[in-house]
Structure formats: C-alpha cells, structure tokens
Write a structure and sequence with these properties.
mainly alpha, 10 helices, 266 residues
Length: 266
C-alpha cells in the first residue's frame, strides 16, 4: 500500500472540466458514499425497515420511472448512434478520447456525464425491490452489476477522462436498457400480460450479446492494433469484465429459462 495507491486515490481528475458538468464526478467521496448507502439499505437496513411493514404500492411511481428511463436511454443510444455510426467521432480500430480542441469534445463530456447520472438513477431499481419486499430479485448479479456500472464509470472518467473505447459500453448498454425498461413498463402497466410476454428471455440474450461484442472489441484491438494508445490495462480489464458478465448472465439465463424447460420435458 505504497504511495502509488495513495496517489491514484487522491490524484486530480484526468478531465477537471467534467466537474462543471457533473459535481458528483468532482471527487471520489460522493460516489463512494452513495454506493455505501445503497449497499447498506438493499442488503441490511431496508429489510429491517420493511420487517413489520406491508409492501408499498409503487405502481404509479414505477410506471413513471420506467417511462423516464426508457426515454433517457433511447436518447443516449440515439446520440451514440449518431457519433459512433452516422457521424463517427472515433476511429473504431482505436477509440481514443477526443482531443481538447476536438469540435465534439463538449458533447463527449456531456454524454459521459449523462450516462453516469443514469447509472446512479438505476440504483432505484433495487430500492423499489426492497420497498415492495421483492427480495428474490436482489441477486448477487443484480447488485454487483449496479455497483460496477456506477463505480466503474466514475473511475474511468477520473483516471482516463471522458469518451474513448468505453463509449461503446455505454452505446450497447443504453440500447439494452431501452428495451429492458420498455418491458418493465409493459409488465407493470398490464401485470396480467406478464406471463405472456414471451420476449422477456431475449432481453437477457441481448445483454449477453453486448458483453460478447465488448469482449471482441478489446480482443480485436489487442490482436490487430497493438499500437493503439488506449491504455493496455483497460483493454485487459474489458476482456476480464466482459467474460465475467457473460458467465454471470449466462448462468442466470440457464437457471431462469433452460433448466426449468428441461425439467418440464422430463
């Protein structure tokens, strides 16, 4: 635990201008406190609070939340589609963060901050589970994924700046969440249709697909463009994290859809 760890924790942000867009990114403490409070509530204090209470009726709140999240994610996906596909701001063979004098640098900062805020808002999913006493939905995968997305985005921006290769993560993730929150809205609005929404399992397949694509992105850069100046450690981290999430979501898919189907056929 030498000075290197201390320096990493307390070093100045890679892009200090980001703090003007999003105060939560100005220091490690706001995001750390938010996540500690989140974990304490969803894993311990929330259950104690709800122990002698009936589940709250949050249907209207959840409907509004799902619609807002669906629109929010669809908008971010649209912006990403424009700047990654239609009007490329990056070389897809080596997605470096934009230079300070790049005409789209302010957009890069704005969309990164918007994505980070969306990941913080995603934490409300688990809070709603607790208040409705839907504890079975608070899985290791669910909590780990939420914490990873908030903490991961913060530290990426803090250490490396906005944009770059990890913009592809936000691009894919925003599409997945647009579809996911649309499903949540339909199932909350019309609970009688929940059992007949056959395409629910395909949301998990799309989630697995995004991690496979992210694995391929990092692998292709490492294999065919080793001179890319995107941090090598981040390439390997993307390989590891994509593999881990593919395995975790694959395990969930097997136990939720494949195993029950096999048991019915026996």
């Amino acid at each position: 635990m030498g000075s290197s760890a201390f320096e990493i924790f307390y070093r100045a942000p890679a892009d200090p201008i980001v703090a003007q867009y999003m105060p939560l990114l100005s220091s490690q403490w706001p995001v750390t406190i938010i996540l500690l409070c989140y974990l304490l509530f969803v894993l311990k204090l929330g259950k104690i609070f709800m122990e002698h209470r009936k589940p709250y009726d949050l249907k209207n709140v959840i409907l509004v939340y799902n619609v807002c999240q669906m629109i929010y994610n669809a908008f971010m996906f649209g912006v990403g589609f424009y700047y990654i596909i239609l009007h490329p701001a990056y070389d897809l063979r080596c997605m470096q963060p934009g230079a300070e004098d790049h005409p789209d640098k302010s957009v890069e900062r704005w969309i990164t901050c918007s994505y980070f805020l969306n990941k913080v808002l995603d934490l409300l999913d688990t809070v709603f589970f607790v208040l409705r006493k839907s504890y079975k939905q608070i899985t290791v995968l669910h909590v780990y994924h939420h914490v990873l997305m908030v903490f991961g985005v913060y530290w990426w921006v803090r250490l490396c700046g906005v944009g770059g290769q990890y913009m592809m993560t936000g691009f894919f993730n925003s599409f997945v969440h647009t579809v996911m929150y649309f499903y949540y809205f339909i199932s909350a609005m019309y609970p009688e249709l929940k059992s007949s929404l056959w395409w629910k399992k395909y949301i998990t397949r799309i989630q697995i697909g995004q991690f496979i694509l992210l694995f391929m992105q990092a692998a292709l850069v490492l294999l065919f463009n080793p001179t890319c100046e995107f941090p090598m450690s981040m390439q390997y981290l993307q390989l590891f994290q994509s593999s881990l999430m593919t395995a975790m979501f694959g395990n969930f898919y097997y136990h939720a859809y494949v195993k029950p189907k096999n048991q019915k056929q026996q």
